[in-house]
Amino acid sequence: DGGITQSPKYLFRKEGQNVTLSCEQNLNHDAMYWYRQDPGQGLRLIYYSQIVNDFQKGDIAEGYSVSREKKESFPLTVTSAQKNPTAFYLCASSWRGQPQHFGDGTRLSIL
Amino acid sequence: KQEVTQIPAALSVPEGENLVLNCSFTDSAIYNLQWFRQDPGKGLTSLLLIQSSQREQTSGRLNASLDKSSGRSTLYIAASQPGDSATYLCAVLHPNFGNEKLTFGTGTRLTIIP
């Protein structure tokens, strides 16, 4: 079945540590997105990529980094510079202008 | 900057009732508007997408309307069921020279009481 796989489902970060969230899709979509969701809030865009080897900052990119070396993969690194990383992270993909398909998310917490 | 608002933040209704969820947006220059469903701890499932040239879309017991000029959309759920309990989010897609982005509302948490 085609879809988006995010891993791990739960992740814990120590102080000063970088962590990487995985997002893989087999839908052959060109565009991929990373969102952050805080309790009681909507989704906020962190980074997005319309094509391999290209990506753009979203509204809250500070403290995060991404890469897009393969069409299927769009990993997100939460760096130590992100001082409030506890949140639910969602990855999505789409054809341009078409509805976005979402993964099941990764919940990141601080130890 | 586009802002999307959903009121109320939470809603509880008895099973079987019809209900309406509201979504408003500040910039009417949109490509489309989507309604999503989110179950606890899960990702989003797209329910309905309305193009900017359309007035409404229907899928089963769901009907979404769009009034672009007034910056409003509604999601109508008929004959509600306990399985409809979830958070419903609306999002607008607005043009940005090939880098179109979705802007989400904060959601309405719906509880259907058996």
Topology of this structure?
The complex is a heterodimer of chains A (111) and B (114).
Chain A: E1 4-7, E2 10-13, E3 19-25, E4 31-37, E5 43-51, E6 54-57, E7 64-66, E8 76-78, E9 87-94, E10 101-102, E11 106-110
Parallel strand pairs in A: 2-11
Antiparallel strand pairs in A: 1-3, 3-8, 4-5, 4-9, 5-6, 7-8, 9-10, 9-11
Chain B: E1 4-7, E2 10-14, E3 19-25, E4 32-38, E5 44-51, E6 56-59, E7 62-67, E8 72-77, E9 86-94, E10 101-104, E11 108-113
Parallel strand pairs in B: 2-11
Antiparallel strand pairs in B: 1-3, 3-8, 4-5, 4-9, 6-7, 7-8, 9-10, 9-11
Give an overview of the whole structure.
Chain A has strands spanning 4-7, 10-13, 19-25, 31-37, 43-51, 54-57, 64-66, 76-78, 87-94, 101-102, 106-110. By secondary structure, chain A is an all-beta fold. In chain A, β4 and β5 form a beta hairpin. The model of chain A has no long low-confidence stretch (mean pLDDT 92). In chain A, the strands form 2 sheets. In chain A, strands 2, 4, 5, 6, 9, 10 and 11 form a 7-stranded mixed sheet that branches. In chain A, strands 1-3-8-7 form a 4-stranded antiparallel sheet, with no helix packed on it. Chain B has 114 residues and is mainly β. In chain B, 0% of the residues lie in helices and 58% in strands. Chain B is globular and about 45 Å long. The termini of chain B are far apart. Chains A and B meet through β5, β9 and β10 of A and β5, β9 and β10 of B.
